Amino acid sequence: MHAKNVLKTYESVAATFDRERDKSLFERRWLDRALNHATGRRVLDLGCGSGRPIAQYMSERRATVTGVDGAPAMIELFQKNLPKAEAIVADMRTLDLGKKFDIILAWNSFFHLSPDDQRGMFPVFAAHAAPGAVLLFTSGPAAGEPIGQVGGQPIYHSSFDPPEYRTLLDDNGFEEIAFVPEDPDCQMHSVWMCRKRPSA
């Protein structure tokens, strides 16, 4: 299983993923923190999947959501679940929307990229971040390339050690607000919250 197979896998399991994805909003505390830190409500959801529950929750909180996913089947579900939101089929690695956002989410999506592609994402984050924008993403707690499962299929993940993420963030104009590895209040997700420096 390799990073290059991730989009094909999500395309093939989209309906199962949407049906089985935990919708209890265990992520709510982090999403609320992002909303509280942000200066606006323009949200870019990278790897948005079907939009449930995260994009739906942000929309209910008066956010204007743009969902981006490289799997067309996921975007089809996203449009069904959030008919008023903008939905774009695109690979996050080459994204260039020409727009800035107040919150950028890469929740359980960014960590499916290879190490080199993860490094390349930080300029993409920066290019879409308004001054003071909040970047919220999940990673692993330490460096590695584990294989998980989605919809009964194997799925690739990768992560760096925290110091490398901190260097990438700093080099691209972001400051760390919080990092909680294996957050016990978030189903053991390792969560980063960062802010785009106003002058960066």
Automatic annotation (TrEMBL):
Give the InterPro entries listed for this entry. Methyltransf_25, SAM-dependent_MTases_sf
Keywords for this entry? Answer: Methyltransferase, Transferase
Cite the Pfam families for this sequence. Answer: Methyltransf_25 (PF13649)
The Gene Ontology biological process terms listed for this entry are: methylation
SUPFAM superfamilies recorded for this chain? Answer: S-adenosyl-L-methionine-dependent methyltransferases (SSF53335)
Q: Which GO terms describe its molecular function?
A: methyltransferase activity
State the Gene3D superfamilies in the record.
Vaccinia Virus protein VP39
All copies of the Methyltransferase domain together span 43-132
Supply the name of the protein. Answer: Methyltransferase
Could you tell me which species this protein originates from? Actibacterium pelagium
